[in-house]
Amino acid sequence: MKLAISASAESLDSPVDPLFGRCASLLIVDADTGEIVGGGRNEFASATSGRGGPGGNPDGPERAGRGDFRCRERQRIMTSLVFGPVPSRRLGHSLGINNIPPKICTYSCVYCQVGRTMNMQIDRQPFYKPHDILKAVQKRIEAKRAEGEPVDYVTFVPDGEPTLDINLKTEIALLKQLGTPIAVISNGSLIWNEKVRDDLMEADWVSLKIDAVDEAVWRRVNRPHKRLNLSAVLEGALTFSRSFEGTLATETMLAADVNDGEQNLRQVAEFLARLRPSVAYLSIPTRPPAEQWVYAPDENVVNRAYQILKTRVEHLEYLTGYEGEAFASTGNIQEDVLSITAVHPMREEAIGTLLQRVGSDWAVIDQMVAANQITPAQYEGHKYYVRRFKKKTG
Ligand code: SF4
After folding, report:
1. Which residue, 319, 203, 312, is CA-closest to 251?
2. What is the distance between the alpha carbons of residues 134 and 304, in angstroms, rounded to a whole number?
3. Does the pLDDT at position 168 exceed 90?
4. Atom 3 (ligand 1) nearest CA
5. If I label 27, which of 76, 121, 169, 215 is the partner at 20 to 30 A Cα–Cα?
6. pTM here?
7. Same structural domain for residues 349 and 264?
8. Which residue owns the Cα nearest ligand 1 atom 6?
9. Pocket lining: 105 vs ligand 1, CB cutoff 6 Å
């Protein structure tokens, strides 16, 4: 529910203005989140007649005020629909689409960087007009092209679950006219629904979240909507992967002592082997999580997780927030090792080969270890070097 509050300034701690129509500011507040979602300074505060402002009488002189407010509100929506492009190792220069208002989701993951889910739902609905999304994206792409900045992907990556948007298929179809590939980063929780699968089929690149395949672990890490069923979610993902012709990616986010246990990882590995994504990403929380007690597993655990998943997944990479150019040889051994370990752990032998190739020696690696950039980790008799991760995320 949205509330219109007459206030004496443009902040929530300012006193209420008793003159509703001619108040200094009219704030539109989301009653669920307590956040200001619209409104602002009332240009009719000094009007001499009528109730004035956005809450005024539509038949009076304030009609213009209401129209002006709607215009500003629409402009605000249009600018909040797209963001970026942001550099992404997965998608290059990715222009983000925020097709879901914050924060409406089917999950309330303990590590979510957008905070706890305030509106949890699994029923799909329209949120924005598809043509507004098209216009906002088109405008941003044209502006970026004029500045010489490329846009490699247009990506649905809202502060919530993108497949809750019932217009997703229409939006993808409209955006495809712009000639830029479309990606959707989804938690996959609605993929049991044939219509959702049908919508996602239109995209060029789809990512699904697979944090757990064990019911108890899934409930602990993703805290799903009570009407969701894990078996149906996993079956839906398998059905989708069999007919999807684009690039299917998965993302497994590890939270220490929540879903980083060996048994869960082996089960996830088995499931990924059946799903056969083009690429599977292993990630850890790198930004403040929804729950303060959540933190990233240490390097040894992340390395162990990588090695376990790697037994069943052909193409597996870290996604840890370090967006280095994987495997690009810059001629600078330190940069090369940082780039590669941002993507996966390096065996000691592989580092030796790299050092040899550039005519360097182990002193460089020792310096990097001393500088806390990388750290050695043992797994099944092999020594690896792993990028240092930030442990506490709160
Ligand atoms: S699915 Fe994504 S947006 Fe939803 S709670 Fe989990 S991390 Fe947050």
Report:
1. 319
2. 44
3. yes
4. 160
5. 121
6. 0.74
7. no
8. 109
9. yes
